[in-house]
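Running this now, will post back.
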Amino acid sequence: MAKRARYSTDCTDAEWQVIAPLIPAAKAGGRPEAYPKREIVNAIRYVVRTGCAWRLLPHDFPPYRIVYHYFRTWRADGTWERVHDTLRRRLRKAKGRDPEASAGLLDSQSVKVTDQGGPRGFDAGKLVKGRKRHLLVDTLGLLLAVVVTAASVQDRDGAKRLLRRMVGRVPRLAHLWADGAYGGDLIEWVATTCGWVLEIVQRAAGTVGFVVLPKRWIVERTFGWLGRFRRLSKDYEVLPETSEALIRIAMISLMVHRLARLHAY
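Update: finished.
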């Protein structure tokens, strides 16, 4: 490809050093790659950060069909999840933590959808018609797991889907914090099914207005990080799996930037 002007969403050299070893290599015996993987990754980052449609990618990127092909292939074969989890462990280690988290925080976020189709519902609590993002993060705010459902799915039911995915995958995980929406029977379910302690962090009686609550602010900050990525301002996707992949890509971008600054290659 001809050299182009740099976009602010492009990987720097230091960031590419972090992520390049984790990107799948070309299959042996196939045709030579027409476009560098770095440009494919840059184009995907551009879409997630700016919120543009795939077909509206600037023409100095590889053709959008090729970019979307790689995005979809890496979603289907688990590449985005593997890259994300590897970087999370590496960043935790660079921050002086054990690579595997021992505690986490649960919360959800309801967002509107477009007319693209796919699962959707009405969150009567938030008065939002769309989808709900169920997140589990560690005490640094780094993503451990994400599940996207219709907004009508209750927080407790979404949490069960989320936590089932995590059983046996994070060996040190033992303690979770969440708000009052996750109380009741879920506490016992977490203990018996997952072997973890779920602690509910409640607002003090008589509290009025915004108050920073212990532990719960960490997952709220993660939602704030995701809010920087315009593709996540609504759920534009047909498949919840695509939405989950885009959330992981946003977190990958954040972690790659931090690892590059820490020179943790």
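The helical segments are 13-19, 37-50, 64-76, 79-94, 155-166, 185-194, 216-226, 240-261. More later if anyone needs it.
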